[in-house]
Amino acid sequence: MATSIKAIFFLASALCFLSFLGIAHAEETPNFFVLGKVYCDNCRAQFVTRISKYMAGAKVRLECRDREGGTLTYSVDGETDASGTYHIKVEGDHEEEVCEVALVESSDPSCSEIDKENFLRKSARISLTKDNGITSDTRLANPLGFMVKERLPECTEVLRELGITSSGLV
Prior knowledge:
By secondary structure, the chain is an alpha+beta fold.
């Protein structure tokens, strides 16, 4: 009888201890990993084509801003690797903020233009919270591109393959 009481007491103690461990683990600050690519837009098309080149050494910046006032709350820089991919570690949950990755600096002087047209999105928006249904800690951002000054001659054929001509869609 005394052995069974000791066993019950031991199991209850172990259960309480494991519960405390679970609570302690749940309180950790979440970390996210943002991955994206930077490319050279050889056709000035504003999207990746088969002749686009991914850029090693390009610089990007992730910024989070308050939804209400637009105040900068978080900022971290990143740089692309040999495949044109950046990997940015982000600390904390940014549920009440708008977070975007933007181009900062090109690694290729011949492909360094950022289009300044008002209607174009110059950044990739990402969700950095655990409360959005995404189970992974990795977030994938849309590709960002620098443009060449003059499009390459083969771009007419590349765009035609996609159903795009100088007069519009085919």
